[in-house]
Amino acid sequence: MVAAPNGHKPYALPKIASTGSSAIIACVDTDNNINFWEQTNSPPWFKHETVASAVGGSGGVSFPAIAWTGNSVIVAALTGSGDLDFWWQGSGHWHKETVANVG
């Protein structure tokens, strides 16, 4: 079970994938953050990272997806304005790109 850190609201819409050697999980929380966990080999069993904070403004963020490319983790989600964004993990942090803008 993945627990919410102190001060964070509940998680929703979890998605899970595999790197071939560990489980990876992405979900959103009610603060409109995109969260990521990667399974580790020792306690704590999952390492948490915030992919992006307060995504989508007042419209929030929804429908996250997660995948392993063979070299890095990618996470995609729809923003409240209808944009499709994705983030990829590299050089120790997350990089954002917009795939499609609605307006």
What tags apply to this protein structure?
103 residues; mainly beta; 0% helix; 4-stranded antiparallel sheet; globular; single chain
Task: Report the sheet-strand fraction.
Answer: over 45%
Q: Largest sheet, described in full?
A: 4 strands, antiparallel
- Number of helical regions: 0
Mean pLDDT: 87
Count of the separate structural domains: 1
Structure commentary:
- The protein has 103 residues and is an all-beta fold.
- It has one domain (12-100).
- It has strands at residues 11-18, 23-29, 34-39, 46-52, 61-68, 73-79, 84-90, 93-100.
- The strands form two sheets. It has a four-stranded antiparallel sheet with strand order 1-2-3-4, with no helix packed on it. The chain has a four-stranded antiparallel sheet with strand order 5-6-7-8, with no helix packed on it.
- A hairpin with a 6-residue loop joins strand 3 and strand 4.
- It is globular and about 45 Å long.
- The termini are far apart.
- 22% of the residues are buried.
Architecture blueprint of SSEs:
Blueprint: E1 11-18, E2 23-29, E3 34-39, E4 46-52, E5 61-68, E6 73-79, E7 84-90, E8 93-100
Antiparallel strand pairs: 1-2, 2-3, 3-4, 5-6, 6-7, 7-8
Quick overview:
With 103 residues, the protein is an all-beta fold. Helix content is 0%, strand content 56%.
